[in-house]
Amino acid sequence: MPYLAKYSPIYNIDGEVIGMTCVGTPKSPFTALLNSVIQKIFFIAFSSLIIAVFVAVILNKKIVDSIKKLKNSAESFGRGNYDERASIDTGDELEELAESFNKMADEIGKSDKKLKSDAHTLKTSFDELKEVDNLKSEILSIVSHELRTPLTAILGYVELLKDETAGKLSEKQKEFISVISENSDRLKRITDNMSDLVTVDNKILDIKRDRINLKKEVNDILRSFDYFAEIKNIVLLEDVDNLDIKGDKSKIHQVLSNLIENAIKFSKKQTKVTVMGFEDKGNIHLEITDQGPGIPKEHLGKIFDKFYQIDSSSKREVGGSGLGLAVCKKIVESHGGSIWVESKIGKGTTVHVMFPLIK
């Protein structure tokens, strides 16, 4: 039988070994105790592992379920259900995340309601503005139609007077008739603008395509404004290259008349109005420059809007409906061109017009 033994030497007074002592015990009880301890340790470890796995499964299910709830809430919210809220009661970071999500949902819900309210208000305002715009167009159509007939008669009789059909005219009478003729022509341009603005808004502008020599067109228009310019001692200058475009002659005439008239109208006395035209990358580039008061920068982007006037009081002094430039822009763009304005306060304004060039 195996033993566990412990030996110790026995010493005399002189320190010499005179014998040995031995204590022994059978080995079996210790082995049994050790095996028992090992078994208990193994049992405890195995039990702990099973418990840990069980707890992990439960916790994992709880976490996964919470994440699924949060995911489903987020997807529902993303589909536009802004009343959706995440309900998670885990007492940990997931619950905090759900609370943050709910706070975000509350804010987005409030913003969405405000946006819908603002959109409704905006739509209502837009509908009202559209009604006003339609009413303006209807009024323009009626006014231009009602003015056209008597104005045509006035212009016809003015031409007869100019031709001295009714008898010889004195110089003073000729001067008066020139004033009547010029202002009648101006009134005709206004009625044409009204009519064209209505047709453009209704997208029924009829554009013919004729070959037009811009140099000749500009010179004809400048001559028609000679008297108007002489009243203010304004010198009219022309430097347009001999170039052609394709377009509606009457409409191009209307655009140039409007722009040149504006340049003269807003120019100071004893100044110059210059019309230049040159080839520019396959286009003809016209520049109508005056030496007027100039246009503030903040107004440059709006002057082509219908009825827009920079200063109503000053516009009334020289006349103006706020229609001319709006019509010009529509006509120029319908010819494949572009129009824009550059201006410096106190120095004057230049209107740029570009038309596709034909050779």
Automatic annotation (TrEMBL):
SMART domains: HAMP (SM00304), HATPase_c (SM00387), HisKA (SM00388). It catalyses: ATP + protein L-histidine = ADP + protein N-phospho-L-histidine. Residues 61-113 form the HAMP domain. It is found in: Cell membrane. GO terms for cellular component: plasma membrane. GO terms for molecular function: phosphorelay sensor kinase activity. The chain crosses the membrane at residues 37-59. This is histidine kinase. Its EC number is 2.7.13.3. Its main location: membrane. Keywords: Cell membrane, Kinase, Membrane, Phosphoprotein, Transferase, Transmembrane, Transmembrane helix, Two-component regulatory system. It holds the Pfam family HAMP. It is a multi-pass membrane protein. InterPro entries: HAMP_dom (IPR003660), HATPase_C_sf (IPR036890), HATPase_dom (IPR003594), His_kinase_dom (IPR005467), HisK_dim/P_dom (IPR003661), HisK_dim/P_sf (IPR036097), sCache_3 (IPR033463), Sensor_HK_Regulatory (IPR050736). It comes from the Archaea. Residues 142-359 form the Histidine kinase domain. Gene3D superfamilies: 1.10.287.130, 6.10.340.10, Histidine kinase-like ATPase, C-terminal domain.
